Amino acid sequence: MMFLRGMATNASLQIISTEGLGEAWKWKIWRNISFRNICLCDLRGRKLNVALFGDLGRNFDAEQVFKQSQNAPIVAVFAGMLVRRYAGKGFTVCSTSASKYYLDLDIPQVQEFHASLTDPHKPILLHPCQPGTTFLCRATLKGIDCTKGWFYWSCFHCKRSISRDGINSLCIQGCPKNPPPVPRYKLNAVMEDMTGAMDVMIFDDKAQELVGAAAEELV
């Protein structure tokens, strides 16, 4: 069973559509991570969106699932998923490092689900990923964590972080050495909304607007 904040839903759900592979920024690992969205439906017609991240999303063969769905519905079983609820959006389900999925397992629960389907069969829909989609989240700034510093030395020309060989400051982009490096803000801000808290890095101009002074004035 899959439990959604007190509401139990059978983990056997029919796949009705999938999206192409996309990418999303992951703050904790400081890089983009691939994902794939899948839309599921239970026997009552209630839809549930599931996001598969990393290898789980990359290895999901959407084309093969689409071909199989031409003749019969595909029933998926998901395990080890993270379930959250957002105001105005409802439940969202995403994968974790422990997540797994199974398609058309030969088990009584899946067989019972197939037997209970009464609507005319429709093949799975394939949708392209929409990376341009944006969402608005209102959060409160709870504080700034300066335990690991609050600024970085940057190249005057490109604003990127510089490295030091013990004597000289070197720009990783190969910019000229003059003028000297400039300190710029790198604030680890703690943000919180009604669903939880997370760390967000605020750089340079945006951080200066927040503080009200240039970083070089405070170093």
TrEMBL record:
Gene3D superfamilies: Nucleic acid-binding proteins
Pfam families, A to Z: Rep_fac-A_C
InterPro entries: NA-bd_OB-fold, Rep_factor-A_C
Coiled-coil parts of chain: none
Residue ranges of every copy of the Replication factor A C-terminal domain listed in the record: 136-218
PANTHER family: OS03G0429900 PROTEIN, RETROTRANSPOSON-LIKE PROTEIN
Protein name stated in the entry: Replication factor A C-terminal domain-containing protein
